[in-house]
Structure formats: structure tokens, C-alpha cells
Amino acid sequence: MIVPFGHVFLLAGLIFSMGLVCLVAHRNLIMILVGVEVMMNAAAIAFVAAALRWHLMEGQVFVLFILAVAAAEVSVGLAIVVSVYRRTGTIDPDRYDILKW
Amino acid sequence: MTLRGAIFYFLAIVILTATGLAITRRQPIHAVLYLIVAFLGTAALFFLLGAPLLAAFVIILYAGAIMVLVLFVIMMFQRSPRELGLAPQWGHATLLGIVFLAVAVAMVFKDPGSGIVLQGAVAQPKDFGRFLFERYWLAVEIVSILLLVALVAIIQVARGRGTSGDEAERQTKEGHP
After folding, report:
1. pTM: predicted TM-score of the whole model, two decimal places
2. Partners of residue A11 in chain B, C-beta under 8 Å
3. Cβ distance of A34 and B35 shorter than 8 Å
């Protein structure tokens, strides 16, 4: 009635791979966190589609937990970014090399 | 194609365009603004797929709270990190993403259940909440503990290493002469 199940999963896979590219390719800690957010969003879409396919509410319950975990993850991540920026003055992870020498 | 199918493909295009624009921006603030559009599209998609409560949560939590938090943190940085480009491994990253996508597409089309057309059904917020707190109340409590731990960790990280905020304050002044 809506769309085939595979199309929703393809959408989730596309968004997930975009988030993966963003996570690896960027050189800015905030953009890396944005990539993680995009990946969690894709996982949530896949869970909701699976909940509708099998008519089970567990999928939607898991999306609720994904939301909570994403909130905790991004807030802790941003606190660490701010702390590390205060200490080093940059948010480029390639320049965090004070442990090298 | 039914009306709901057309709405789904429209929302998919909106989400993919906004996400694609978000991950290619150099300025994080532009990326976050595009990401808000993507999350609003996701909320509409959840509504279409029969999860109205989750749609509301995505708008309130993701597009509202989390993105505003990220925007505030970006505004806290004194110099805009404008000079940060892509990492040198961005070509490999794109290749990795394409390989992952190819494997995902192959898996989806190999699955015989992927052609099943979704039937519309709506989980009413009342039923959803009753289900959540009858079957998964322990997980809800664990998530609340997780959020509490995150709160404590944030306070500890924001205060710096010492027990008082003086050291972090001093480091801040040293970091920006």
C-alpha cells in the first residue's frame, strides 16, 4: 500500500553510507559528530520500516532508545570537543599529537 | 503509485538531498542547518510509516534539542574553523561508502522479502506508551541511568581535570593569548 520494503531499506542504506563518508572524510570534529548523527538517523529509519513490515512495536521502541543514546552521545562528544579545544586551540584531530613525543 | 507512495519518494528525495548537502559543507554551521531539514523530513517519514509519537520525538529531540546544542557549541568557538578542509583520505572514504552501498543494495535485492509492499498501520501514542512501559520498563530505567551518567560525565569534563574550575579557567586563558 505504501512502498516495497526494500525501497525503505535502500533509503536507509544510502543515508548510512553518506554518514560513513562524512565520518571518515572530514577533518573537523563537529562534522565527524554530524556523520555519527546521520548514521543513527539511518538506523532509526530502518527500525521503523521493520516495525511496519512485521507489525511489531519493538522496532519503534528501539528507535526511542536510539534517540536517547544519540542525545547522550552528542552531548558527551560536544563536551569533549569543547574541552579539547580549550586545551589545544584546534578541532582538527590530526593535530592532537602531544602524546607523540 | 498510490498517494502515500508518492509522498514517500518525495520525502526520500528531500532527505537525501539535505543529507548530501550537509555532509559536503565545509562550514559546520551550514551542515547543521541542512541536517535540521533532513531531520524534519525524517519526522515526516516516521509519520508516514505509522509512528506519530516518534515523529514528534524526532522533531523535539533531534531537530530541536540536539541541533540547537550543536549550534551553540559551534558559536562558542572563537575562531570559525573555516580553514579545515577534507581529510587526505576522503577518496578512500568515498570508495568505502560506495562499496558499503553496493553490498547493501545486493543484500536488499537478494532478500526475497524485500518486495513485500508495506501495509499502512499506525501505532497510536497511547498503545505505544502502554506497550513501552509494560514490556520494556527496565530498558527505560537503564536509559535514564545512561542519561544521568552522561550528565555527570559532561559536568566533570567541562570542569577540567581538577576539582575546582580554576585550572580549566587558567588553561583557557593560556590557550587564547
Report:
1. 0.86
2. 12, 15-16
3. yes
